[in-house]
Amino acid sequence: MEKKLHTFFQSGLLDKYILDETSSSESLKVEHYIDTYPEVKEAYIKLQGNLEILAKVNAVDAPMSVLDRIKSELNVVENQSIISIDRTRRTMPWYSIAASIVALLFAGGYYMKSEQNKVLLEENQVVVDEIFDLRSDIEDNNKKLDNLMRQFMKLNNPETEKYVMRGNDRAKDLKTVAYINPVDKTSMIDVVSLPQLPKNQTFQIWAEMEDRMVNLGILDASQKNLQSIPYMENALGLSITIEPKGNYNEVSTDSAVAEIVLKNKANK
Predict the structure, then answer these.
(1) Is this prediction's pTM over 0.90?
(2) pLDDT given at position 69
């Protein structure tokens, strides 16, 4: 509806209607808009008021000597009846009409300016929303960068030991890298590549203790970033196994596909 009203106001039909310059069909259209849309009726009333105000302000009474001057110029016969001019119904001077047109143009310009301001406010809101989203993205990126820097510092710590784990014949494409710092007591693993498994199986990593195997979690090929895993004090080694889904407590027989022995202070 706003687009329809905007098109109507831009057509200038309301201005022409006020000045009585519309055709019959145009007048019917304007009157329909006035009766149907409150915005058009309000603009019509305002323009009428402006027209009356300008007419009153710019109206100038003709000097009394003008009529006598016209009579003398035309050599009017004395007995010829002179039609008196009804001062209350005199034609509006041309400059009053011009001023009225200026008022109408001003009203139309005001409406267009209001519409432009509305569009500008909407565009400004879009910019504000985009800036807010950008700030949020920057904060998220800063957090990721901070986390990456922490991981980088851990990897470059002289106390951090690096262990490459490669798969056996059952998982030739398997490759992971474990980073263990016995001083800070932190462990991380980088999943470089994992073979595709059936949906009912998973790769799991285990810590080998003296008397048992401890599950450290599931390895996911989609997680390409460094993943933290629990640090196990006095662990003798790490194993990656293929397990049925849901089996997190016991290592299946002959399920290991990659194994490493960890260095410890006792062996140094």
Answers:
(1) no
(2) 62
